[in-house]
Amino acid sequence: MEIETFNKMVVSLRSRLLRVAATLEGGDVEAEDFVQETFLRMWAMRHKLDHHPNVEALALKIIKGIAIDHWRHRKLESAEGEHPKELATEPGSMATKDDMELIKMIVDHLPPLQQQIFRLKDIDGYENEEIAKICGCSAEAVRQNLSRARRRIQKEFIRLTNIEEKICK
User: Fold this and answer.
1) Ranges for the RNA polymerase sigma factor 70 region 4 type domain (predicted)?
2) What is the DSSP string of 66-81?
3) Burial letters for 70-96: b for 16+ Cβ neighbours within 10 Å, e otherwise?
4) Between vectors from CA 79 to CA 77 and to CA 84, what angle results, nearest 5°?
């Protein structure tokens, strides 16, 4: 694969990858590092990309893997006695982290279609039409399932946080 083809096929995904990386990591500087690492890994496999059915999905999978590796590395460092990097410097950052863990748990317990649509839309940044093609349903079904998933997440989050507040009192 020539560099021009690689640029058209892979580097054009940069803005999308940056959004996903910022969502996964929470910082613009590390998000840029994740995108660059993704480009390097894809360049190393450039000869296989011509035959790959979905280069964008591959790039998203690679960047998520990089984020997981980074998280594991930080976790390992903190286990060895070093302090992990803080994602937020605000006093309530631990509460925010706990809230995010709670939301992830709620999303994991959604019905499979709602879970997939929610992740594609709100985490990966796909448009409704793209999600409809991926899931094999209509754009209206995507909109309805996304709405149901968001309402359920909100309802469960409120219910669970109210239970925690009652226990802490």
Assistant:
1) 102-153
2) HHHHHHHHHHHHHHTT
3) beeeeeeeeeeeeeeeeeeeeeeeeee
4) 50
- pTM (predicted TM-score): 0.46
Q: Is 23 exposed, middle or buried (0-12, 13-18, 19+ CB in 10 A)?
A: middle
Distance, CA of 119 to CA of 164 (rounded, Å):
26
List the one residue out of 161, 135, 162 whose CA is nearest residue 146: 135
Alpha helices, H only, 80-127: 93-108, 112-118
What does the alpha-carbon distance between residue 132 and residue 140 come to, in Å, rounded to a whole number?
9
Q: For the chain, what's the residue count?
A: 169
pLDDT digits (tens, 9 = 90+) for 33-76: 888 888 888 888 888 888 888 888 888 888 888 888 887 777 77
DSSP annotation of 90? S
